Structures are given as structure tokens and as C-alpha cells.
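Please discuss these two lines.
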Amino acid sequence: MAPAELGVEIARRIAAREGVDATALDPPLHAVIDVDALESLVHPRPDERTDFTGVVSFAYGDYTVTVDGTGSVSITPAEDADPNPDRQFEYNPQ
């Protein structure tokens, strides 16, 4: 998956579960996570190197979104998510 498509793919998958168009998501995905930073981590530019092999998970509404080091995306209902992940980071751009 090309870097520019990761945020779009996440938005499409959430929207499909919600039965709405991706442009109608409220809040918009970029208000919940820095999509550019996520894309840079998973799909660095050719002149950058990353050793990222883990996963990034974040909450979006009633879902937990997980992206692994290959760019694979999974969307699960929040109640089905692992309540005790090994590591949990919270992004707060304030």
C-alpha cells in the first residue's frame, strides 16, 4: 500500500462499518491521529530508513484501529480489543 493511501484506507474501513461515506466521518480521522506521522512510520520515504516492526493501535469512536509494520490495517470494536496491550501511547497534540 502506498503511503498516501494508508489514511484513506483506514477512513474507508471505519466508514464501511459505520455505513457512511469516508468524508462524513465525525470526527475526521486526522482529528484523532496524525495520519502523516503514521504513514511516515509505516511507509518511510525512499531516502529514510525505519526499523519499525511493531504495531500502532489507537481508538476511533467505538473502534480500535491497528496498523502493523507492513501497513496491514484492522478495525475491531473497542470492546473486543485487548484491554492490556504491552504498550499504550496516547497522542495529545495540545
